[in-house]
Amino acid sequence: MKAVENAMTADFLRSAYGGESMAHMRYLIWGELADKEGFPNIGRLFRAIAYAEQAHADNHFKVLGQQKGDFSVTSGGNFGVGDTVANLQGGIDGELHEIEQMYPVYLETARFQKEKGAERAFHYALEAEKIHAKLFKEAQDYAKEGKDMPLDTVYVCPVCGYTEVGGPVDVCPVCGAKHTVFKAFEK
Length: 187
Ligand SMILES: [Fe+2]
Ligand SMILES: [Fe+2]
Known about the structure:
Keywords: Electron transport, Transport
CATH topology: Ferritin
Shape: globular
Cofactor: Fe(3+)
Protein name: Rubrerythrin
GO molecular function: iron ion binding; oxidoreductase activity
Bound molecules: fe (ii) ion
Strand content: under 5%
């Protein structure tokens, strides 16, 4: 990916990097809490999605290229240690914010500024977050009944964060990576 040249897109990449980094850590924390609450599959779902957010942070960081100096980075992110139903709501809210507001705006800005690398990184994240919101909602429906979700192996594309339950697909439908590179989160 070519390094970013325009300041506005660079700001958005740094903010998105911060947001994805926090989401990665937050999902690991919530995953551990889900395990303790007796929902190992929901815990595993959190860990798989945490890995996808890491892939997004990785892309944003790399597109920024080499930059001198320190930056203060402002990123949205929710906080809270609740029960698994509440933590999944945090996940749903965060993903929906990314899907409905953050990434569409960032993506349009990258396009406007002809920042191809950033455009790709934002597109990858946006597509994965749509799947994440859906999976968290499914998990929450079970957790509300006091049940763990039934969950096959979760496969995550390390290139774009595309997340597939019960795959793997031959080729990543978002970025075209071969399934052999997917990371599997097995029972
Ligand atoms: Fe996500
Ligand atoms: Fe992919």
